[in-house]
Amino acid sequence: MTSPSPFVECDQIHACLAVSDISAAVDFYTKKLGFKLGFTWGGDPPTFAGVNLGKVQMFLQQGTPNPKGCSVTFLVGDADQLYEFHRANGVEVAVEIGDREYGIRDYGVRDLHGYNLSFGHHLFNDGPPIKIERVDVSVRLEKRLAALLQDLAKHKHMSVNSCLEEMLLHTNDGVGPHTETTLRYIQDLKKKHGIDYDSHASYRFKEE
After folding, report:
1. SS3 breakdown of the chain: % helix, strand, coil, rounded to 5?
2. Separation of alpha carbons 93 and 108, rounded Å
3. Within 10 Å of residue 188's Cβ, how many Cβ atoms?
4. Where does 16-122 sit in CATH, by number?
5. Other Cβ atoms closer than 10 A to 86
6. What are the tens digits of pLDDT across the range 76-114?
């Protein structure tokens, strides 16, 4: 009789790639691909290293590279932004960026040892259309906030209506609609439009 599966708590997984030169691999991943160095280990020269992409860490181990049948996939906040960065750095693009039927917009590159790396983000427009009827709602927004909203909608390739609907739907579910990448972009927009108030400022707004 098979024992019942135990409760397993696991929230991290680390891919480990064998590379012929740790220092050269770290240099490629940090300078060409946009990773951050986490650590090196094993002396000088090192024989083991960790490189980070956002909150994800990948290991590089001294050994004989064997890219055949091996690939690593990363889900990121904005695949298009990273794609342009990789192209500008001369990284070999193995698969051009595009929207896939499995609900991800992604692309593939090869590292200096020939390993296939895929980077993508979720497509939230995946799925059957939802028929709706829109109604006019009289809305007046603080001028700088309205300018930020227009820029944000343009950045996300959405109408202002759709952008507001997205934020309202997420708020009703108690979660935020924005990735960390988008939140960083919003901080730049706040500086651009001179928004110097916090998230509770609307309670103190006094229309002139």
Report:
1. 30, 25, 45
2. 6
3. 10
4. 3.10.180.10
5. 20
6. 989 999 999 999 999 999 999 999 999 999 999 999 999
Position 206, amino acid: K
175 in the Ramachandran plot: left (φ > 0), alpha (ψ -120 to 50) or beta? Answer: beta
Length of the chain: 208
Three-state DSSP at 118 gives: strand
Contact 35, 51 (CB under 8 A): yes
Neighbours of 208 (CB within 10 A): 2
Of 17 and 175, the structure prediction assigns the larger pLDDT to: 17
Residue with the two structure tokens 């001179």? 194
pTM for the structure as a whole: 0.78
CA triple 171-173-176, angle to 5 deg: 45
**Which residues lie closer than 8 Å to 52 by C-beta, 6 or more apart?**
35, 36, 37, 38, 58
- The domain locations on the chain are 16-122, 143-200
What are the angstrom distances between the C-alpha of 68 and each of 22, 29, 32, 204? 19, 19, 22, 61
